[in-house]
Amino acid sequence: MKEAVKKSIRTGEAALKGTAKSAAKVVQKTADKVKKKKNTVPQSHDEL
What is the pTM of this model? Predict the structure, then answer.
């Protein structure tokens, strides 16, 4: 019984990591779009 709970927790953590990764990809895509729109404006945080 305990092992089943551990497995479900592991799969839950893996699912959370997966959603976090996909969310990060979406955020990265959005950031890239914003950068393309504002590529004429120098961005100090990119230089750091």
Answer: 0.45
